[in-house]
Amino acid sequence: MAGNKIKLQSNDGDTFDVDVEIAKQSATIKTMLEDLGMSEEDDVIPLPNVNSAILKKVIQWATHHKDDPPPPEDDENREKNLSDISSWDQDFLKVDQGTLFELILAANYLDIKGLLDVTCKTVANMIKGRTPEEIRRQFNIKNDFTPQEEEQIKKENEWCEEK
Amino acid sequence: MSWSLDTLPPELFRYILAYLSPEAASALAQTCRKMNAITHDDKIWQQYFFQRFTYVVRKIDYSNEEYLSSIAQKPFKLPDGYTWQDCFIERSFQDKHIRSLLNEIISTRKHRIHNANLISSTYGLLALDAFKHYFPPSPHASKSISLDSRNLTREYYSLEIARLISRQAGLALLNDMKTRQNIPTEGKALLNALFIIQCFHPDGILLQLTRLHAIGKRLVDDPMFSTLNLTEKCQLILTTMKNESFLPANGSTEYYDISNSFLFSTFHGKPTIPLTLVSIFCALAEECDLIARPLGLPGEVMAQVYQTSASNDTPSVLIISVFDGKIMTLDEINDRLADFLDEPLTHPLPVTSILELISRSARNMINSITQYPTSSLNSYGLYAAVCVLKRLGAGALPFTFDSMMHVLKEHFPMDIHLFDILASPLGTNADDLQRIQEQDANPPIVELKRREDPSPKYFIGQIFQHLQYNYWGVICGWDSSCMASPVWQIRMGISNLTRGATQPFYHILADDSSRRYVAEDNIDTLAFTCIENEENKLAIFRRLCAADSIGKQFERLDMANAKFIPNLELREEYPDDFA
Question: What is the pLDDT of residue B117?
């Protein structure tokens, strides 16, 4: 079945030909193909929640990762390791924030665990080790606390100091 | 529409939160109102709590339902009005306090004993979470940390205090057991009782018994298991025990080894004695829904097993010598023991109480100590035996008060509650305790060792090889001439050395953890530089870093210069050595 292709359509009308095996990294697409009995030859799978630019990036990621072993079971009780992002993924994710978040949404909608993990880790790395002010600047967040509220919140979070 | 951090759907935001440390989540909370609200998600804080903290209670009470080692880690329900975030923050503050006390303990002798006991009494097992990152790395650690980045003094004290906490947990459990009326004897009861003794082992309460859950589950989940009769089930458990390396000790050296009385060695594959094997057998039998109880017979502890079927006839019982791997009926055991029993055994079989068995274990330890006086576990074994026999009122100890106190105070100087356990025949405990507490509050000034002409050739921290006996060691102190007793000098043949007793002598720590006194003539510091193989050099470094109590005097290893860097206390005592 090597070389079997499927057509994926973005919400702005662009169609992409993708190997079935690569497309099946998306559990959503896999379900559509297997459970809903969509034939692999002629049908076009519409993806109303993903635009063309993002879909292109997702396909690029999935293509590079097609031979990856399935991701391991999540162990909730282990502090997550944020430093194991491959250099290819790091380069791949050197994009503006808007794109990064759209990739998170797409990975979630398409249910591609590996992509969801690596994009969320990237965002987490942008937050880690930063002061609140630095985080605000990074993500363009407006400080809407009153001075009293800000004092109060700071006090609540005192436990963090000098780790 | 452009997405940003604060416009993400909540479930995706939670996904990202799971990747943040609690500290990062806290920083995020302080950015704006919306972030503050979202990061108050208590489910995430529950996750953070269990990622960071393993121990959830200060002390554990005796139980026969659960493995004692896992009770301290059981998931628990929050009290009303308390969130996981509250819980987490409270623990973080406690953690910080514990660590600041540890720092005080490390940096000064003043109040050291007081602070150590303060940590144990205030926080108990919770302190183990604060210390776990400071322990020496285990030899099988997957990620190996570089030797010269290790803080050896911090490793030493965190381990010593953890052991103190573990011993106090063992004592508390002994007290708890003593006050209970009827301690059941089936299932996990015996294993838990032996676990109390394990608390006194250097590895202490950290030993996990839950491996037995997994083994039991595997047996029971096999659909074939329920089709077996009682004998076949017992046989399967015996075979499983062998496969899991719970084996009988062979030969008298192995049999009388004191490590047999500690669960640690058994769970690490060392063959052991009947009492321990029976305890594991009974626990596994319980996992498989059988009723198994210990049966103390002349010469050996065995197991008696019943099936839990609701049958009206007299239940059939099997008697199992776990040590020999033999399953016997009542008749067969009576035949076997005909010469040793006054009367044949009949239904119902006597059940040896848990208190009797744990005392038996203590007496085993005393035997081992007497037979093999040089084993490194002996001081721990003595401590355990003393606590068990004294607390359970189970008979006199064969050693004098003075000799026991001497050993215990030397190895466990911070355990002031020893005075509660061992009553001095002369009634001097209160005075001794007071003296210790006074010295702790006002440590005597240490005499400085200054270098005078002619100065000793070698310095504190240098790594050397003994010229005659070839072992490796590190120099911990020196005297400008031999200060040992004449008896020692004669025994060691000091007068045979070229310079005899009038040369500098060095206090050293050898790579087998022994402390010795070596003449300058026997010290070779160049040997290390002559080693060509890097692996061999590393092996010597590793062995020395693993020596017990290296951290008591040295803070770090300086690999480049092949020496250990003394900590504050040692530097103060030898000011000229650290110029």
Answer: 97
**Nearest CA distance, B194 vs chain A (angstrom):** 29
User: What is A5-128's CATH superfamily?
Assistant: Potassium Channel Kv1.1; Chain A (3.30.710.10)
Closest residue in chain B to residue A119, using alpha carbons only: B16
Q: How confident is the model at residue A162 (pLDDT cuts 50, 70, 90)?
A: low
Residue B33 to residue A105, Cβ atoms within 8 A: no
Spell out the domain ranges in chain A.
5-128
Select from A128, A130, A146 the residue whose CB has the most chain B CBs within 10 Å, as the one to mutate to test that interface: A128
pLDDT digits (tens, 9 = 90+) for B500-539: 999 999 999 999 999 999 999 999 999 998 998 988 999 9
Instruction: Pick the residue from chain A with its C-alpha nearest to B99.
Output: A163
Q: End of a domain among B335, B356, B377?
A: B356
Q: What is the pLDDT of residues A8-56, one digit of tens each?
A: 999 999 999 998 889 889 999 888 888 776 665 667 888 999 999 999 9
Q: Kindly report each contact of residues A96-102 with a partner whose C-beta sits within 8 Å and lies 24 or more positions away, as own/partner.
A: A97/A139, A97/B4, A98/B2, A98/B3, A98/B4, A99/A53, A99/A54, A99/A57, A101/B3, A101/B4, A101/B5, A101/B8, A102/A51, A102/A54, A102/B3
Pull the structure tokens for residue B282: 């009974």
Check whether B314 has a pLDDT greater than 60.
Answer: no
Residue B387 reports pLDDT greater than 90: yes
CB contact B142 to A (< 8 Å)? no
Residue B21 to residue A79, Cβ atoms within 8 A: yes
> What domain range is B545 assigned to?
462-577
Q: Is residue B203 part of a domain?
A: yes
Within 8 A of B33 by CB-CB distance, chain A residues are: 144-145, 149
Looking up residue B241, the CATH number of its domain turns out to be 3.10.620
Spatial strand order of the sheet with B505-510 comes to: B515-519, B505-510, B472-479, B463-466, B523-524
CA distance A123 to chain B (A): 7
Residue B391 has pLDDT above 80, yes or no: yes
* Rounded average pLDDT over B529-558: 92
Residue B214 has pLDDT above 60, yes or no: yes
The total number of structural domains in chain B stands at 3
